[in-house]
Amino acid sequence: MNPDTQALIVIDLQNDFCPGGALAVAGGDEIVAPINALMDRFPVVVLTQDWHPKGHSSFAFSHAGAAPFSTVQMPYGEQTLWPDHCIQGTEGAAFHPALRTDADVILRKGMNPAIDSYSAFFENDRATPTGLEGYLRTRGITALTLAGLATDFCVAYSAIEAARLGFTVTVRTDLCRAIDLGGSLAAMTAQMLEAGVTLV
Ligand code: VGL
Ligand code: ZN
Fold first, then answer.
1. pLDDT tens digit string along 140-196?
2. Looking at the predicted structure, is the pLDDT value of residue 1 above 80?
3. What is the DSSP letter of 194?
């Protein structure tokens, strides 16, 4: 495959998803150095950043009596409720301090108070675009490699929607770490394979 048409998408490598963070993913910090090294092999590198306003509707505290990691029905479907995380401008929302940030694009998502956004391409209503597709297409990109956090949420949703949009998608599972909530890793792995995503 022509390397000029490939982009690396690094999903949500932020302090709150790393050990010690508000929504820590086990081993989240282990993937920073190898992802930094991988960046040199791609002509286009995109970093995504989960970037929620205070009181975001995906936070359990925004729903009276709801516990973190429970689910609620939203107008756009079922939504897992999370501990407060990645609040705009906080240290938790900052990239892991060792992550290279000399990327082409830093895409922020999850800003709409009423809709969560796991995917780098669409909000969780699966209809509101982030604009990343247009950016990649105008740069001539046809194939994407994804790495980052968390395998079974933001990485998986981004991979499935990228495949749906017609990109050739590879997920570097060795450079991802999972939350694995109630079997979510197995479920989302199956959905990625079904969507035609290559897992390596
Ligand atoms: C994520 C849960 C909530 C992720 C973001 O980056 O996978 N997970 N917000
Ligand atoms: Zn989030």
1. 999 999 999 999 999 999 999 999 999 999 999 999 999 999 999 999 999 999 999
2. no
3. H
Q: Is the pTM of this model over 0.85?
A: yes
Best mutation site among 25, 50, 151 for ligand 1 pocket (most ligand atoms within 8 Å of CB): 50
Q: Look at residue 3 and tell me whether its pLDDT is greater than 90.
A: no
Cβ–ligand 1 distance for 153 under 6 Å, the answer yes
pLDDT for 33 equals: 98
Q: How many CB atoms lie within 10 A of CB 2?
A: 9
Instruction: Report which of 184, 198, 159, 161 is spatially closest to residue 9, judged by C-alpha positions.
Output: 159
Is residue 51 in contact with ligand 1, taking CB distance under 6 Å? Answer: no
**Is 154 tagged catalytic?**
yes
- Ligand 1 contacts CB of residue 141 (under 6 A): no
pLDDT at site 46: 98
Asked whether 67 and 81 are in contact (CB, 8 A), the reply is yes
Cα→Cα distances 90→15, 48, 109, Å: 10, 16, 15
Q: Are 21 and 13 within 8 A, CB to CB?
A: no
| Residues whose CB falls within 8 Å of the CB of residue 172, separated by 6 or more in sequence, listed in order | 38, 145, 146, 147, 200
Element (H, E) at 39: helix 32-39
CA distances from 88 to 91, 149, 184, 189 (A): 9, 18, 27, 30
